[in-house]
Specification:
The chain is α/β, with parallel strands linked by helices. It is built from 21 helices and 22 strands.
């Protein structure tokens, strides 16, 4: 950890409670004002103040203190940030001091006229001296801690990285100011580089503009620079390549501001959403899982992940790779994303034994080959079709991938002698109303049934919508906001449970690998209304919902429900708290009759018998009522209803 700078007066005052800090500052101000007034008399009378003038000093000090301290409160300079004070605060301090002198002069002008005695007030020369000395002392109290911190921070940090800031504009100046304020970095800025001829030789924030960009290699060699910080807004890519090429042999580190400080006062664009974390959208605090706990289970193990190229599967793979498994096998039909995932993992974990295998979970022969080849100890099954509307139009595909595919991967785990198998399921499997939800419920049946006959420990992990995952509503809203709208919401009262990808994968690793029960569910707080989520995302982009970006309602699509549930009533009744925010459920395996129906459903899907398949699904799950006919893909929804239409209780309460 980086050592902190020694604490000075400013940090001591800042660490006090706000009211005590304000009182301490006012008391110090009072002492400085009295000292300045006394010093003014000493200077005026060359060190020997006559007794009559000492009486005058004592008489005038009380109204002077009252005027100046009152103005300090009115101008707010008793509420001072010793770390963040700058030019505007200095101007405010001078204004308060000048106003105090003006009021003091006016006060004694009228008093002297009332009593017809010019000796009541102090001489004008004393007023001028007092103004200068008071302003200097009060300013020194406020700014000296910051100046001292600039020197002490560097001494307390130990070795530093000699750095040049590329760009001497507003962004560069603000970056330098921020670096001076913070002790959480190793950078020692020795100067700027900029192509503006008017800035050459100038000093910015106490650091010189050393030269133009083409002179960077020479400057780096002469000054022993190790780091370049790019702070030029919209630096042309060709110029950046030119600088990197010129410095290629210098072994420098490079950093660039992803969003320039220069734009903080501008209106934020929708593209800034790329820099926002979906964690901020959760209506609860994020669940954090113990990395060391999972590492003890994964380290040195052979792991296989299906659906590894997907959003959930790739995050599972990344987190497992970080925990040091003996080998990691990634299986998916998406060879393009699988290849890029491999490259990322190899670059980040060069010593890890990673293998990618293009394979379809529907192909049992292929899976058995992989099982014999790699002998995985842990199997994570994330491969699935998950888009509800698409699966409504192709229920056979949902069954073949999500049900038969799950059966095949479960057999791989059993036959390969895996110790644990974890199925990624969804809240749509609870009282399913869609082909996708039905298929995931059937996959849960298969996992529980397989667990009866296998030495492998089988676990189902069920969670709700994952923010930012492929096909989720967040990327859709981002693209719609970036295009200027409209943002489409299915129904004004549609609610969903939301979690981050890291939470989802943490649940998979902690609950699945520790095998507390057949089913594990993350307690996700209250579901969030999708309309509220849409409005929040529009607001985060710096736009006004329903004015600058319209919201329209498209109506619920086939298979969608207004509200999702995480557990059935029976599961909720028998569930137990496994640990913070995880519920563990142990339920009896499905009966032989149910499994016979599952096999019949798989057979009809394989044969392409849609009518028979739908009848079998409705028979097993009365909650599933497929639409009579789906509109062709690509057709517009029948109606778009603007969100401005009066719907009771829809508007988010605006914070003052």
């Amino acid at each position: 950890m980086t050592p902190r700078a020694p604490r000075g007066p400013g940090s001591i005052l800042s660490s006090a409670s706000p009211r005590r800090q304000e009182l301490a500052i006012l008391l110090l101000d009072a002492g400085f004002i009295a000292l300045a007034f006394y010093a003014a008399y000493l200077l005026r009378f060359e060190g020997a103040i006559p007794p009559s003038r000492m009486t005058q000093l004592t008489r005038c000090l009380v109204p002077l203190l009252a005027i100046r301290l009152t103005l300090h409160v009115l101008f707010g300079i008793h509420r001072w940030s010793f770390r963040l004070s700058g030019f505007h605060e200095a101007v405010r301090l001078v204004q308060a001091s000048f106003t105090g002198t003006a009021i003091f002069i006016s006060f004694f002008y009228f008093v002297q006229r009332a009593f017809e005695d010019v000796s009541i007030g102090p001489p004008r020369s004393i007023l001028i001296i007092e103004f200068l000395v008071t302003t200097s002392l009060v300013g020194a109290l406020r700014f000296s801690p910051r100046l001292a911190n600039r020197w002490t921070v560097r001494r307390s940090q130990g070795p530093s990285i000699r750095t040049i800031v590329v760009g001497a504009g507003n962004a560069g100046e603000l970056l330098l100011r921020d670096l001076f304020r913070s002790d959480e970095h190793p950078y020692r800025v020795i100067g700027f580089a900029d192509d503006d001829p008017h800035k050459q030789g100038m000093s910015i924030g106490g650091r010189p503009v050393l030269g133009k960009l083409r002179s960077l290699p020479k400057l780096v060699r002469q000054l022993g620079v190790e780091q370049l910080l790019f702070s030029i807004p919209r630096l042309p890519s060709d110029k950046l390549r030119e600088i990197l090429d010129a410095c290629a042999d210098l072994k420098l580190n490079y950093k660039i501001l992803p969003v320039s400080f220069a734009y903080l006062n501008d209106r934020a664009s929708a593209s800034m959403l790329q820099d926002l974390s979906p964690d901020d959208l959760l209506p609860r605090r994020q669940v954090v899982f113990d990395k060391e706990e999972v590492s003890r289970v994964i380290a040195g193990r052979r792991v296989l992940v299906t659906g590894a190229a997907g959003s959930i599967g790739s995050e599972i793979s990344r987190q497992i790779a970080e925990l040091g498994p003996a080998s990691l096998v990634l299986v998916d039909t998406n060879e393009n994303d699988l290849y890029f995932l491999l490259r990322r993992l190899e670059r980040r974990y060069p010593s890890l034994k990673v293998r990618v295998e293009v394979g379809d979970v529907r192909d049992l022969t292929r899976l058995r080959t992989l099982g014999r080849q790699y002998r995985p100890q842990e199997v994570f099954h994330a491969a699935a079709h998950k888009h509800v509307p698409l699966m409504e139009s192709a229920p056979e595909e949902a069954i073949k991938t999500n049900v038969t595919g799950c059966r095949n991967v479960a057999r791989l785990a059993t036959e390969a002698g895996a110790e644990r198998f974890v199925l990624i399921s969804t809240d749509k499997a609870v009282e399913p109303a869609s082909a996708m939800g039905v298929s995931k419920r059937l996959a849960e049946f298969i996992v529980r049934d397989e667990g009866q006959r296998s030495a492998t420990a089988f676990t189902v992990v069920r969670f709700g919508n994952v923010l930012g995952s492929a096909g989720s509503v967040v990327p859709l809203f981002k693209s719609q906001i970036a295009a200027g709208g409209p943002v489409t919401v299915t129904h004004p009262e549609c609610r969903r449970y939301l979690m981050t990808i890291r939470e989802a994968v943490g649940l998979v690793l902690v609950a699945g690998l520790h095998h507390p029960a057949d089913l594990c569910v993350l307690e996700m707080g209250e579901p969030i209304r999708i309309l509220d989520l849409a409005r929040l995302m529009i607001t985060m982009s710096g736009l006004v919902p329903e004015q600058e970006v319209p919201i329209v309602f498209t109506g619920l699509r086939a298979g969608e429900k207004l509200d999702e549930e995480l557990m059935t009533a029976e599961e909720a009744r028998v569930s137990l708290r496994y640990r913070e925010m995880i519920r563990a459920v142990s339920t009896p395996p499905p009966s032989a009759g149910v499994m016979a129906q599952v096999a019949e459903i798989e057979r009809r899907a394989a044969e392409g018998d849609r009518e028979g398949l739908l009848a079998a699904l409705r028979n097993l799950f009365p909650s599933y009522q497929p639409a009579a006919e789906e509109p062709p893909l690509g057709t517009a929804p029948p109606a778009l209803r603007p969100a401005e239409e009066p719907v009771a209780g829809l508007r988010l309460a605006r914070k003052a």
